Amino acid sequence: MSKPKTSVAEYRNYYLPYDFPVLLLSGDYWRISSKPSPNLHFHNCLEIGICHSDSGYMSFIGQKDPLFFKEGDITCIPRNIPHTTWSSEGTESHWSYIFVDPEEFMKSMLPNVSARSYDLSISAYKDYKYILTREEHPEVYSLVLAVIKELQDQRVHYRACASGLLMSLIVLLTRIQSAGGVLVTSSDNPPENAMVLSPVLDYIEENYSRQIDVDYLAGICHLSPTHFRRLFHCIIGTSPLDYINNIRINKACNLLRSTEDSILDISESVGFHSVSSFNRHFSERLKTTPRTYRYETLQQKEKIDKYQIKQYKGWMYPPEHNNE
Questions:
Q1: Domain match, 164 and 204 both
Q2: Among 127, 136, 137, 135, residue whose Cα is nearest residue 180
Q3: Is there a single domain that holds both residue 35 and residue 126?
Q4: Domain boundary among 131, 149, 180
Q5: What gap in Å lies between CA 274 and CA 258, rounded to an integer?
Q6: What digits encode the pLDDT tens for the residues 70-93?
Q7: Are both 120 and 22 inside the same structural domain?
Q8: Radius of gyration of the chain (CA)
Q9: Rounded CA gap, 253 and 103, in Å?
Q10: Phi (first) and psi of residue 313, to 5 degrees
């Protein structure tokens, strides 16, 4: 069996509230087709998945052969890692997904501890384990099911309970990845299956609020600026500058939803030179102004949430035969 040929990776952004940076995608409609997607995709946060039925394969950029999964397996896929999933022939595997920003989550849980050590970035470990079996890691399986149940049932104080379970899960996953390989220091070579642009995507995620020079990004990958731009567009499907501005707009949307900060303060905090530049990029992408976006969010939150969901293919409700 050959893995699907891909050249462009689809970026899927997930809105995770600051006060509880966790999102659950579950339900009977989360069934994966047996037809491989023509494109890989990657997320802006950690994806923890659980396969409820059947089996199939996962393909990751940079890996020669796809990985096999079966019922009961847990997947642990860090942000910025292009991948795709498809089921065994004649089946549609059923899944639930937890999306979380481990660093932000652990900051809120353990404010006096370095949350960066819990980021679960693939560049931090050699021999990273994307798939954990129920047989080898029954405690991971049980914790994932417990978190899902809390988030689904939403009983009294469910966030507090889910947070405790999720903190235990993140610590356990960190221990497993540490035990599975050697922590990579700055002088180590990156793991063989790491995406060539992964260090750049991580750098942008951490420094989007600063002015970012594309030539500097090229240097991170040890590529010429021309080669870097060409490779970035080939893999991501857009230019480095457009990608950076998209990240900034995503962050600004979060702040417009969750804070009362002025539009000027928000534009500066996400890295734009001026309010006029921020307004222009915001309007080009969302077809509305930041001020209108905030007003409609406050006045018609439910309606706006549904509208925003539709901006991202497969973000919350997968269309027919869509692959996770």
A1: no
A2: 127
A3: yes
A4: 180
A5: 22
A6: 999 999 998 888 889 999 999 999
A7: yes
A8: 20
A9: 20
A10: -55, 125
